[in-house]
Amino acid sequence: LSLQGSLNVLLGQSADSPLEVVDDLQDLKQEEQADFSTLLALAYEHRPELLGMNSQLQAQRSNIRLARSSLLPWVSADANYGFSGSALYSLNKGWSFGLSLSYPVFSGFSLASRVAQEKIAFQAMDKQKSSLEQGISLDVWNAFLALKEAKERIENTQIFLENARENLGLAEEEYREGAGSMIEVIDAQTNMVAAEVSLIDALADFKISLAALNRALGIDLWSRDEGEAR
User: Fold this and answer.
1) Please, are residues 226 and 27 in contact by the beta-carbon 8 Å criterion?
2) CA max distance for the chain
3) Quick one: 216 exposed, middle or buried, by C-beta within 10 A (0-12, 13-18, 19+)?
4) Residue 122 and residue 185 in contact, taking contact as beta carbons nearer than 8 Å
5) Which of 1, 11, 111, 172 has its CA 20 to 30 A from that of 98?
6) At what angle do helices 2-10 and 182-217 cross, to 10 degrees?
């Protein structure tokens, strides 16, 4: 009981508060349904720095198209309707049409150089995007593994806690019947509290790992799922 009181104090509770380990693992069940490829796709869809890079690439594509258009010949046409003649009574009416084709002969080299420069800039941005995607992939992978390890630790500590509770029940029963000692009861209590602490730590690690995964994804995945369910 003294160990239970000490644990309550560590948790910021009154020493005589009943200690109950609540292992609400709704997030854990959701994590089991998510695989790495799905999570990585979500990260590529929501990470703000990747979204920004995609916008820059789109703008650079527009720059390339604009630079290319300056190399194309351009055509102009005009039409006029008028009168001709030396006397008012002998005027001739008629249409006149004009068509001209222009090509940037003298500035063609500089314009072609501009197109090349815009392409080089696009390629550099595309390489940056690839590097960014690799970094995001590593972030998601590390967070995903950490979350799975935290899940395994929870499962193991749950088994440890269940065994510790059973052992404490047996030790208390033997003590009441005179077949066991108080030392055995205290040892069993110590083991049970240690198991409870381990489970609390495991649950905390899971929540921390879950938050790290959400950061890697750029989105609160579980809140997103709950919103879609509603």
Assistant:
1) no
2) 141
3) buried
4) no
5) 111
6) 20
**Residue 65: its pLDDT value, please?**
84
Looking at residue 230, its pLDDT comes to: 43
Instruction: Write out pLDDT tens, residues 77-102.
Output: 566 655 555 555 555 565 565 555 55
Q: Return the number of other C-beta atoms located less than 10 Å from residue 206's C-beta.
A: 22
Residue environment code for 29-64, b if the CB has 16+ CB neighbours within 10 A, otherwise e: eebeebeeeebbebbbeebeebeebeeeeeebeebb
- The span from the CA of 143 to the CA of 213, in Å, is 5
Answer whether 75's CB lies under 8 Å from 67's CB. no
What is the C-alpha end-to-end distance of the chain, expressed in Å?
44
Secondary structure of residue 176 in the 3-state scheme: helix
Q: Answer yes or no: are the C-beta atoms of 30 and 222 closer than 8 Å.
A: yes
Q: Which residue has the higher pLDDT, 76 or 213?
A: 213
State the Cα–Cα distance between residues 36 and 50, nearest whole angstrom: 18
- Go through the chain and tell me how many residues it has: 230
Closest by Cα among 66, 31, 46, 4 to 206: 31
Report how many helices (DSSP H) and strands (DSSP E) the chain contains, helices first. Answer: 7, 2
